[in-house]
Design a protein that fits this description.
The chain is of the alpha+beta class and 300 residues long. The protein is 54% helix and 16% strand.
């Protein structure tokens, strides 16, 4: 079936402009609709350029409104969330909603590994980790091999080590990454993991916190699996979610340090109290008498 752009290229200039206006009204405008007319130096070309500028301005405004309506409330709720597991789940679920992704996995850095903490798949009705009550049985992904070299075979470890996002249209046709584990999962569950978007999560100091991986973006109209697209809303969501996650991790580490310090102080206090008791004349006399009794008992 010919595309709208192909149809328009064979239509009259006025019909192309009319079609572009209808596309703007429907929120489906693309500069490709007026690409040929925009190059025209005459009045129709000027009209086409004006329409293109208006359409792009509307698109930019709509994106800003999307940010205001969706991302800011999400950011507020994430920063206010005090339950760590719910925070992690919210990060994955909101990212899935923004990208219309069928599945999402969140990994957190633990020593030299990426540990699975949240796994969700809508089609398979699968929820693991977080508040689901279902443990994730998959092994962590190592960042380095046994010989000390970087593990760049796995897409999540590659993203973590390089700090780069990886957008893959079809995992079964992509070379350079090891998707054997994914293929085993697909075979066992009768699923088909196709498009992937893997995002390293770094705090303001560019320190790696974890990795978010979204799987199988779907066309909102047809349900067809498509490639992940650049999205300002997702970009803003990741920034806000990472800030909330980093803040929680820092606060938890501080609480742990305070608890450790309190234990050390308590142990020091107990040691001092024991020393004060053992150094008293009463305790010294008692210890001398006890020693004498033991010696007398041994002689008998």
């Amino acid at each position: 079936m010919p595309s709208d752009v192909t149809i328009m290229s064979s239509s009259s200039p006025l019909k192309r402009i009319s079609h572009a206006v209808r596309a703007i009204e429907a929120g489906e405008y693309s500069s490709a609709l007026l690409a040929e007319l925009i190059k025209d130096s005459g009045d129709l070309g000027q009209l086409a350029r004006m329409l293109d500028a208006v359409a792009n301005g509307i698109s930019a405004r709509d994106n800003q409104l999307r940010l205001l309506r969706k991302v800011i409330p999400i950011g507020v709720s994430l920063s206010a969330e005090k339950n760590f597991n719910r925070l992690l789940e919210s990060l994955v679920m909101e990212a899935q909603a923004v990208t219309n992704a069928d599945a999402g996995t969140l990994y957190l850095v633990e020593d030299d590994s990426l540990k699975f903490v949240i796994l969700r798949n809508i089609s398979l009705n699968m929820a693991m980790g977080g508040t689901s009550g279902n443990d994730i049985q998959f092994f962590p992904v190592k960042l380095h091999n046994i010989d000390g070299s970087e593990n760049r075979a796995n897409v999540v470890s590659y993203a973590a080590l390089t700090g780069r996002r990886v957008n893959i249209a079809d995992a079964y046709k992509t070379e350079g990454f090891d998707f054997s584990g994914t293929k085993v999962f697909d075979e066992q569950t009768h699923y088909h993991s196709k498009s992937f978007l893997t995002i390293p999560l770094q705090n303001k100091d560019e320190k790696l916190i974890g990795v978010l991986q979204l799987i199988n973006a779907k066309d909102s109209k047809t349900g067809e699996i498509i490639s992940f697209q650049d999205d300002d809303v997702l970009e803003a969501l990741i920034l806000l979610a990472t800030a909330a996650l980093d803040g929680y991790i820092r606060e938890a580490a501080l609480r742990q340090e305070i608890a450790k310090l309190k234990i050390e102080i308590d142990e020091s206090r107990r040691a001092k109290q024991v020393a004060e008791i053992t150094e008293t004349k009463f305790f010294q006399d008692l210890r001398t008498k006890a020693q004498a009794m033991r010696e007398r008992r041994n002689r008998e």
